[in-house]
## 1
Amino acid sequence: MAIRNILNKKDETLHKVCKPVIKFDARLHTLLDDMAETLAKANGVGLAAPQVGILRRLVIIDTYDGTGVHELVNPEILWKSDETQRVQEGCLSCPGEWGYTVRPKKVRFRAQDRNGTWYEQEAEDLFAQAVCHELDHLDGVLFLEKVVEFIDPKDMEE
Ligand SMILES: [Zn+2]
């Protein structure tokens, strides 16, 4: 496994629409493993392939709830709850920038695993927020576009 470089929001890669994953091969598995290592080192909750320079539709999410790293290949949101949550958000590609977004409280999504098998899953709270944030990356959308109120970075320091 290897740590990959996380691109900054200024990189045009982060503003492009990603293509579907079509090969579920060793190269994909290496990418997913590298992304997991990169995410853990950065103490992040989620990482999308374009953030490491790969314009393919896959993301990983780890909410540190004990269920491990979720791998979502070619993910699609099937349903969003009407109930929303107002949450603090940041992004590994936007260091030092924080804001409140309004995200669905729950989402249901479908995705393929690393071997290409489709599955469906429901996510809520932080997991739902991360699914929305990471899937936006696959369409070239950064959370900054979704912020309803920016947070002074000084207020984020402990
Ligand atoms: Zn992000």
## 2
Amino acid sequence: MNNYHTHTCRCGHASGTDREYVEKAVAEGFSVFGFSDHSPWPYEDFRSRIRMDASELDSYIGSISELKREFSGSIDLRIGLECEYFPGYISWLRDIIAEKDLDYVILGNHFMRDERTGIYAGSITEAKDMYDYLDTSIKALETGLYAYFAHPDLVFTSVGEFDDVCRDVSLRICEASKALGIPLEYNLLGERKRSAGMFRGLGYPCHEFWEIVREEEADVIIGLDAHSPDHVEMAFMQEEAGRLKAEGYRIVEGI
Ligand SMILES: [Zn+2]
Ligand SMILES: [Zn+2]
């Protein structure tokens, strides 16, 4: 199996060296393994605590590029980023993707419009914020920049009950995914968090959301969202992929 969702310690909330992730991925038998650390943004007066600084981007790319060469006989490493959709910085992102020759970027709509003022998607409980999440997600997907939509159901993390608004938002995410041909990610870090009892609300993967994805027959990709080399587990991915396929989901492997 392939995984395109891996972080590095540069984001400040992941552990392990780049090499440790790669060695684990090789040992586990991954054929394609992509790094998609939290994207920096060219902030002038703000230091995010959940992502690398823009000045670290070259060393991130350089480090993975070196490992890519070193391990080219045993694994196909890809270099990407997990990015929000911040309209003010989209042209910067577009330039970076071209200039640094990134293999791909994925959408992680953690904050809407602006990290400094935007609400964290995982804390949303009100309908107007859910629709804002939907709106920014669709605008992001329509840019054509993002290879897939990471944990699209992050928006339901803190919600207590899956109501008509949640249903409507889910359906429209599926419709956009299908119309644009962009897979939705079934996020295995969320599975780990749920097992650890870390969600007070519905959490993610959100069962009701995924029922709609199945009914709508949107494409699904499984992502480890590894924040530690320990998260790089082929057996876990295969088990989840097997279960989802048996339940009728349209699983895609590549991007
Ligand atoms: Zn993270
Ligand atoms: Zn991630």
## 3
Amino acid sequence: MQFAQVYGHQKIKEQLIRNVENNRLPHAQLFLGDEGCGKLGLALALTQYIYCTQRTSLDSCGVCSSCRKISSHSHPDVHFTYPVSASKEISTQHIEKWREINASSMYFNTTDWMEAIAKDGNKTPNITREETRSILSRLSLKPYEGEAKTLIIWMPEYLKKESNVLLKLIEEPPQKTYFILVAEHSQQLLPTITSRTQLTKIPRYSYKETHAFLDKKYGLEKSSLEQIARLSDGNLRMATHLIENNSNDHAALFRDWMLACYRNDLKSVSDISDKLHAMGKNQIQLFLKHGIGVLRECMLHQTIDNYTINAESSQVDFIQKLSTTLNAFFIEKIYTQINEVIYHLQRNANPKIALFNLSINIRYHFIRK
Ligand SMILES: [Zn+2]
């Protein structure tokens, strides 16, 4: 991947290029940024730039043998570590899937990845002890082609304490070995990782950037473009999913869910939790994001005089009605609770239990006349 293929982040790209050109590339770097910000793309573009035999001061060439091997994730000196779904598994067992998912998107998250390798987005990601051993042996080999070896660790959040040997290696790397760690949640990283790597924070895309990205890629009509750009909040994975997945089902299901919570109808709540569980973590997160969008509209409708509700016409009536059953304080509460569930779903939470608990909490927030 060339830098030009990574959307935006011009200043960061320039800094990375300068580091390579001035021979000041840190041996262990941490690219930290929220989902859908293009951090993995930047790590891959940087790696390609390091190895390219015909690079310019702007980018790698994209056509030399090194560039082509790195683009296809098959350069013998560039290694990858990423979470897997079962104990004792190692990354190299899933290299074909890794190539596939990288070829299809730059913004995938761990749930997408679990769905790709385990056919089950509800599986818990894991970087195994066996993987640590495998990395050590891969890195102890002499470089095949270039002078340097690189290890890209995607989602080092899943490295555990038993990875000490690897952390030691990051601290005192073998000659000419680069580590690029690509992470999302700084608070879940082992402190030894944050202290031993040079941090580059990758910001979220702005509303304007997201809008321009979607406009160029999909050319939607103005109102949906604006809505999706706002809803996705700089997360290009979310934005693409919102466009590519039919969100109508989410709208109907969200309406049923709110109604069941309002009516204290625990049977329906439980049925809906089951239904959502069966859809997998990915869809649940999209569903909840949809809900957050609805709640935001409720809030704006309540607080701004003559506010025009920004939603599909079939949703407007529902949003107006929902607004009469919730006050701003409780909308904010539900908002926070939904965001917490999204966060926990990306970790180990059981979707069925998390959704049921969320429903129980939401029930208390309604104003019933
Ligand atoms: Zn090249």
## 4
Amino acid sequence: MAVSEIGKDKLLHMYRKMGEIRVFEETAADLFMKGRLPGFLHSSVGQEASSVGACAALRPEDYMTSTHRGHGDIIAKGATLDRMMAELFAKETGYCKGKGGSMHIADLDLGILGATGIVGAGLPYAVGAALGFKMKGTDQVVLSFFGDGGSNTGAFHEALNLAAVWDLPVIFLCHNNQYAETTPQRVHQKIKDVAVRAQAHGIPGVTVDGMDVLAVYETTKAAVERAKKGEGPTLIESKTYRFMGHFVGDPGVGIYRTREEVEEWRKRDPIPNFRKVLIEAGVATEAELNQIDQDVAKEMEEAIRFAEASPEPELEEALQDIFVES
Ligand SMILES: Cc1ncc(C[n+]2csc(CCOP(=O)(O)OP(=O)(O)O)c2C)c(N)n1
Ligand SMILES: [Mg+2]
């Protein structure tokens, strides 16, 4: 898709969101390694174009689900860095009042149905939400993010099958980052492209360059249009890479992948590449993009201050919002 068809505001929004994700992930990893954050973190650095391209094709009223590596997807859907950081700090002002933590962030007002630490578990509840939209007769859609490892679960196949037979408005978006924990895709799957699994369910399957935000945007937009018209789900495989280890603390090189492999993928870093596209197409100047980078850095500093200054949840609230009152 030519940049001229997308419009400057949207393009700069995508650039900003990718920057927000990068700085959030790097800051969170740094705080975690200094022992200042509780819990466990999975960084999505490298996957920014995959998250942002997909969410840029959604409207605020559309829903999404995500995974243990979900910070990027959630920021791309509209979450702000302050409440994200507060959630990681387990503070009252976090998206889930500090009870969700890194892997379980949700906000229904933003259409973020939830992330989950259970691999593959986000797919069936995306299908449930899509069934709800279809029964209500709205034109909302649901996008479910998952990984290459997630595409090996039974839940993946059950979700695709049901969404296919009922023509539900779902987009299944696989961040194929080449690894499931420390296992390379070639070891955990016989197929090269996750997208071919769509054939088993009679739905379209598309493979896209997940380091190219515009390619992901265009592909997702087409899938959203199809879903809105009642034509059913699409499986999109976005080929991407996580630059960091599986979890923050995993060096990510030497044991299960080589430094050279990581360096090769780093040359395809989606953020400087998109910056180049914007400048070469005359969409923005260096100065405009530098200003966005500075605004993002400031937003991050304020987010840390906000999270640090926020109160801990009260002990009496420990069981609130955990069970549904009947
Ligand atoms: C049902 C289930 N099985 C195993 C695990 C342990 N586990 C956590 S992350 C992960 C790998 C997932 O790989 P992928 O779906 O490719 O996501 P990525 O980590 O690459 O983002 C596994 C097996 C889990 N959390 N849930
Ligand atoms: Mg993976």
